[in-house]
Amino acid sequence: MFYNGYFVRGVVGLSYKKYLMLLALIVLLGISLSWYFLNKREIPVLGYHEINNKEHSPLALSTTEFDAQMQYLHAAGYTPITPDDLLQFLRDGKELPYKSVLITFDDGYEDNYIDAYPILKKYGIKATIFLISHDIGLPGYLNWQEIHEMSQNHILFEGHTFNHPHLDKIQDDDELKKQLADSKVDLENHLGYKVDYLAYPYGDYNAHVIEKVKEYGYLAAFTVHLGDDTVQDDLFTLHRVPVFQAYTHTFIRFWLSLHCPYFMKELQYASAKWNKMKQSYF
Predict the structure, then answer these.
(1) Can you tell me the distance from the alpha carbon of 100 to that of 82, in angstroms, rounded to the nearest whole number?
(2) How many other C-beta atoms lie within 10 A of the C-beta of residue 82?
């Protein structure tokens, strides 16, 4: 009967109530194990994109949800840090406050100024925005006036390439130079300080891209791989905790991802496998 899939059908055929109970037990077990590892020095890097009440794309988080998350970090005693702080911890062994968190935004959407910036100021939270140099000043994106105002109020700006390509698909080194080096220089000329950090568009990279990122003077680079960062991690493939609106119970998922990122990674994998099984056997 195993070969005909009846055993699998029996497992997949669990009632919805039993499935929820099993899932709840798994969640509780994961939380318990995660609390055990909380004493490890792992730094979460939160990754946001759009913050507004208008867009309903996977990248957009509502201002209400964002405010709740920032309020939680503030009330729970988290200390927002900069990429330099993270680098000095990972590379040089510099001590950081026990509850440290790096808050990042990708792409440089204008709602980062209109909606996110006032919330960050309200709670006294610093953040880092990775800019697409080509898109600055275009409709829907930050302009230099907004960027300069934010930079005077604890918001840092780093690199996200020239026009957001899949870097691992680029074969021409001249194009990589345009994306990584020329865009870096352009940002530095406007910002008045060195751009030392990169966020890979789509999280895509390969060994050659990393080689060029190092060659052009970046000190570290961030992926979208779910997880915290430790001294054992490669500085040019740093993890983040992506925060999206693509699901219900966003705050619960935010809390679990913040405290138990590796458990959430396994849960996402298990959920994908479960959905695949349902498609195969129903």
Answers:
(1) 10
(2) 17
Q: Are residues 34 and 49 in the same domain?
A: no
Are 44 and 228 spatial neighbours (Cβ–Cβ below 8 Å)? yes
Q: What percent of the chain has pLDDT over 90?
A: 66
| Domain extent for 208 | 42-246
The model's pLDDT over 32-43, given as tens digits with 9 standing for 90+, comes to 555 545 545 789
| Residue-by-residue DSSP string for 166-213 | -GGG---HHHHHIIIIIHHHHHHHHHSS---EEE-GGG---HHHHHHH
Q: What is the pLDDT of residue 55?
A: 73
Tell which residue, 169, 244, 155, has the closest CA to residue 200.
169
The candidate with the shortest Cα–Cα distance to 201, out of 63, 108, 126, 90, is 108
Considering the domain architecture, whether residues 21 and 67 belong to the same structural domain is answered as: no
Cβ-proximal residues to 38 (8 Å cutoff; 6+ apart), any chain: 259
CATH number for the domain spanning 164: value is 3.20.20.370
Domains of the chain: total: 2
In tens, the pLDDT along 107-116 reads 999 999 999 9
Other C-beta atoms lying within 10 Å of the C-beta of residue 225: 15
Global model pTM greater than 0.85: no
pLDDT for 36: 46
Q: Are residues 206 and 270 in the same domain?
A: no
* Full DSSP string of 24-44: HHHHHHHHHHHHHGGGS--B-
Residues facing residue 104 across a β-bridge = 47, 128
Q: Are residues 273 and 168 in the same domain?
A: no
Is 267 found in the same domain as 184?
no
- Are 27 and 162 members of one domain? no
CA distances from 166 to 50, 119, 199, 215 (A): 20, 32, 12, 19
111 lies in the same domain as 196: yes
